[in-house]
Input
Amino acid sequence: MKKLCRQAAVLIASAVVALASATVLARDFRSADVHNKDFPTNLAVKFMGEELAKATGGKDRIKVFGDSSLGSEKDTVEQVKIGALDMVRVSTAAFHGIVPESMLPSLPFLFRDIDHFRKAIYGPPGDKILAAFEKAGFVGLCLYESGARSMYAKKPIRNLDDMKGLKVRVQPSDLWVSLIGALGASPAPMPYAEVYTGLKTGLLDAAENNYPSYDEAKHYEAAPVYSETLHVMSPEVVVFSKKVWDTLSSEEQAAIRKAAKDSVPYYVSLWEAREKDSKAAVIKGGAKIVPAAEIDRKAFVAVEKPVWDKFASTPELKALVQEIVDTK
Output
């Protein structure tokens, strides 16, 4: 009996030690985002965390910090670079200055439609873009679509004459500065969180974004005319810190990559619903929509061609652009 009691005590002690070790090793990876907690990007990364927790038996999880609570996109990218933050979801524009391949999906009028976008970005070209992040100190996990971006202001924008002289908010990126400049407007780089005030005070004449962002930030209150120029379909990207990544086991790395991949179809379903709801919401809020059929797309495309040549400036980048164009 005493021997059995000693064996039971040993087993209990071993179990306690194992549980304590698991608790010590359990980790919440912190992920930042500028959008609110109910935005599709945040919900998708939360889903990613749930899938990761299932795969690791609760050992690894992801905690999402939205509403720019950990800083602007630029701030959080810098934190991820040095390993102070584990991961981040940002627009690919946040990487234009450090990952040249990240610029390519933002080339104006690159994608024929959303079907073309999905085949390219969720296919081999997208995989090549994600792989390019590693040389800059990041691990590219997945790309998320963000619809087509369009112009909004206090007046309709149907042609190039309507763009002349407008001070337009752009993401802090040389590509975006060139894109807006080619349209005859004056680009104003500015963090997302400051755009509403800029529009409201007249510091900005216009901005550009997708329907969900136009709705979420209530930009329609200050710039009530949304013109469907559909000029760019730049994706979002989720990246992990290479410094942190290299401390993880191969099993953990594989689990994170799979969770990220599995989050993409979940995100797409959320995004499609959000786009539809947001368009209805801004119209209800008083926004006027200028449909794509009324936009002089041909003229817009013509003035943006030099932007392609400027930023797809190496044989490798040109080849990747051509691969995207040729995707059927």
